[in-house]
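Structure first, sequence second, as always.
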């Protein structure tokens, strides 16, 4: 497995893509509306939201690449 395949190959699609985008968006809205208790939980939710949105935009998940899993159509 080369680095291009590990870092850039699309491996997120379908229901997985929708869930990541939806969860990331809902988490960002919850943070913006101050619905998350101040402290460490705000950081945890912010990181999870960023990772979800980022992976849904790029359609790539590095842990999926490492284990050879893909939900994207071929």
């Amino acid at each position: 497995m080369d680095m291009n395949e590990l870092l850039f190959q699309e491996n997120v699609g379908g229901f997985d893509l929708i869930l990541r985008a939806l969860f990331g968006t809902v988490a960002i809205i919850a943070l913006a509306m101050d619905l998350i208790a101040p402290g460490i939980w705000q950081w945890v939710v912010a990181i999870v939201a960023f990772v979800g949105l980022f992976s849904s935009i790029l359609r790539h998940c590095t842990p999926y690449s490492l284990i050879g899993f893909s939900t994207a159509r071929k």
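Margin note: The chain has four helices and no strands.
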